[in-house]
């Protein structure tokens, strides 16, 4: 019986689901092939990235140590810089900067994306990681403390105003959570919670262009009820000296400007030696095989993955990365056994939003019908999806027809 080494590069959402999927596929195949999985990540933990708005609002742990998550597999802490398909090695630097090589038979590249940041002269704080989330939290808390003692009404209102620039899912969730927590904290400091103003600046004409306009409108109404004012069709230019200037010519006096500008493929990919699209995503076929590099697969935010039936490319979301990963184990096994492998299929239309506190909204389209769940039930579904994404709950997955045939 031959044992293969499967190296998973990156333990984000796609990476951890890939590990699970490969383990399941090999266990199901039973005995003929064995796999040893090695996970390498530059961090010692899985970052629950979609929850970054939480530590921006209050103290909340959103990392899970890999040692706890995967006690049975080898976990290496290191930053992979280069993958050599000839020698079947990944070269990486450890935390002390020393270079090493890791041999593999199969490599899964899931190094994800980074949050887009504004130019350095644009001011504000971009929600890009744990450090900036903590800086955002400190800033709004300090603003509220100062506002409690402020006698000038205009300055007080400025300190109680926050602008969130960028109205994708991250901007929506961040603005709602900040409005909710800042109102709570205001009450505790004997400040009228109605004085808390959160503006969500949307460069698009409406919210949620990924779904129907009526869902975008419903979201906007909910946000309004929860203390967030959405401004459409304007760009945020700069935060300077307590004012946030917009492309419309307006300037909002604000104590804090938070940027949530979307994602870029991991720039480290440019050095890794893999074939990339002009946008910097790894080029793969419909079964996630990296172009011209047998034995290397790539999924998640770092790969450009197109549904061969519809021609539609997946976007950068954890639900899509998770669905790709759930298919990957069967693909790898099928390739090893020389059998036809399953191909990518786009994920169903479904989006969840946390809207501050224990409130949320879920939209999905089934059989041509729009289904919307709001309120506490919407939040419970949202929480469930967060937990599934980080393997804290096991999704109920039916065996796919194509998977069963592989
Ligand atoms: C603020 C924010 C909010 C978001 N909200 C949502 C949301 O509500 N819903 C949704 O679906 N998506 C959301 N996203 C997008 C979602 O987080 C990504 O789609 C998801 O994280 C992609 O998973 P991934 O595994 O492909 O990559 P990542 O989660 O980026 O994981 C990549 C992993 O690779 C590691 N790594 C990177 N470079 C190297 C290297 N050179 N060597 C070794 N390891 C490396 C990283 O440490 C990380 O663990 C949000 C993103 C952000 C930033």
Write up what this structure looks like.
- The chain is built from ten helices and 25 strands.
- By secondary structure, it is an alpha/beta fold.
- The strands form eight sheets. The chain has a five-stranded parallel β-sheet, covered by helices on one side.
- It is elongated, with a radius of gyration of 23 Å.
- 42% of the residues are buried.
- Residues 396-406 have low confidence and may be disordered.
- Flavin-adenine dinucleotide (FAD) binds at residues 9-15, 40-43, 47, 49-50, 52, 79-80, 110-113, 115, 127, 169-170, 263, 266, 268, 300-302, 316-319, 321.
Task: Compile the SSE list and pairings.
Layout: E1 2-9, H1 13-29, E2 33-41, E3 45-47, H2 53-57, E4 63-65, H3 66-69, E5 74-77, E6 79-84, E7 89-93, E8 99-103, E9 106-109, E10 113-115, E11 125-126, H4 130-149, H5 153-159, E12 161-165, H6 169-188, E13 197-202, H7 213-225, E14 228-232, E15 236-240, E16 243-246, E17 251-253, E18 256-259, E19 263-265, E20 282-283, E21 296-298, E22 303-304, H8 318-336, E23 350-354, E24 360-366, E25 369-374, H9 375-389, H10 401-405
Parallel strand pairs: 1-2, 1-9, 2-5, 9-21, 11-18, 12-13, 12-18, 13-14, 20-22
Antiparallel strand pairs: 3-4, 6-7, 7-8, 10-19, 15-16, 16-17, 23-24, 24-25
The structure holds flavin-adenine dinucleotide (FAD).
């Amino acid at each position: 019986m031959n044992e293969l080494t499967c190296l998973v590069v990156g333990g984000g959402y796609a990476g951890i689901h890939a590990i699970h999927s490969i383990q399941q596929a090999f266990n199901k195949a039973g005995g003929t092939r064995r796999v040893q999985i090695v996970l390498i990540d530059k961090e010692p933990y899985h970052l629950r990235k979609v929850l970054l708005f939480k530590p921006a609002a209050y103290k909340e742990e959103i990392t899970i140590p890999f040692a706890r998550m995967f006690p049975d597999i080898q976990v290496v802490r290191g930053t992979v810089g280069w993958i050599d398909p000839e020698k079947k090695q990944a070269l990486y630097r450890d935390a002390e900067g020393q270079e090493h090589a890791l041999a593999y038979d199969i490599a899964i590249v899931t190094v994800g994306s980074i949050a887009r940041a504004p130019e350095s002269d644009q001011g504000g704080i971009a929600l890009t990681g744990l450090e900036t989330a903590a800086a955002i939290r400190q800033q709004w808390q300090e603003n509220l403390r100062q506002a409690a003692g402020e006698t000038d009404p205009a300055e007080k209102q400025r300190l109680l105003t926050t602008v969130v620039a960028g109205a994708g899912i991250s901007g929506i969730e961040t603005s709602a959570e900040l409005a909710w927590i800042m109102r709570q904290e205001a009450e505790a400091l004997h400040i009228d919670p109605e004085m808390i103003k959160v503006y969500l600046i949307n460069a698009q004409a409406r919210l949620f262009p990924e779904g129907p306009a009526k869902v975008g409108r419903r979201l906007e109404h909910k946000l309004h009820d929860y203390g967030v004012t959405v401004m459409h069709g304007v760009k945020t230019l700069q935060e300077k000296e307590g004012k946030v200037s917009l492309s419309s010519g307006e300037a909002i006096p604000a104590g804090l400007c938070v940027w949530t500008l979307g994602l870029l493929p991991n720039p480290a990919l440019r050095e890794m030696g893999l074939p990339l699209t002009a946008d910097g995503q790894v080029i793969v076929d419909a079964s996630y095989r990296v172009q011209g590099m047998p034995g290397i697969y790539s999924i998640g935010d770092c790969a450009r993955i197109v549904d061969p039936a519809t021609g539609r490319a997946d976007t950068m979301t954890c639900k899509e990365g998770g669905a790709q990963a759930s298919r990957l184990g069967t693909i790898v096994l099928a390739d090893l056994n020389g059998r036809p492998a399953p191909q990518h299929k786009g994920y169903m239309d479904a989006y969840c939003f946390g809207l501050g506190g224990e409130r949320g909204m879920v939209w999905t389209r089934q059989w041509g019908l729009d289904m919307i769940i709001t309120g506490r039930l919407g939040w419970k579904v949202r929480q469930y999806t967060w937990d599934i994404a980080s393997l804290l709950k096991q999704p109920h997955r039916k065996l796919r027809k194509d998977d069963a045939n592989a």
